[in-house]
Amino acid sequence: MKALILYVTFVLTGVALSGLAGFVIERATSSVLGLIVFLTLFFTNFVIAWILTVLVMDGSLSNIQGRQEQLDAERTGKAAMKKSLSGL
To answer: Exposure winner among 42, 49, 65, 66, fewest CB in 10 A?
Structure first.
């Protein structure tokens, strides 16, 4: 739950910053360039928010995809299945 709250907070902050940057660029140059800047920052924001959430939760990016936990869960599941089948 904490990760979801962090992610949403980072996304909303990024959306606000994207809108502000797009507005400033639009006023300084053209509406087309402002829209391009906004959309680029808006979609990049989701990736950056995810990376920041992982950094805040784990403290590093060494296990960002959770591979080790997945392997451990599979190993535990296989052991439990083997144990239940041997009891039959």
So the answer is: 65
Is 22:6 a contact under the CB 8 Å cutoff? no
Write down the pLDDT at residue 42.
Answer: 96
Q: Is residue 54 within 8 Å of residue 7, measured between CB atoms?
A: no
pTM value is: 0.67
Residue 37 CB contacts under 8 Å (≥ 6 apart), including other chains: 21, 22, 25
Q: For residue range 12-33, list pLDDT tens digits in order.
A: 999 999 999 999 999 999 999 9
| CA distance to 20, 34, 40, 41, per residue, from 30 (Å) | 15, 6, 16, 17
The angle, 0 to 180 degrees and rounded to 10, between the axes of the packed helices 31-58 and 2-28 is 160
Top pLDDT among 87 and 40 is at: 40
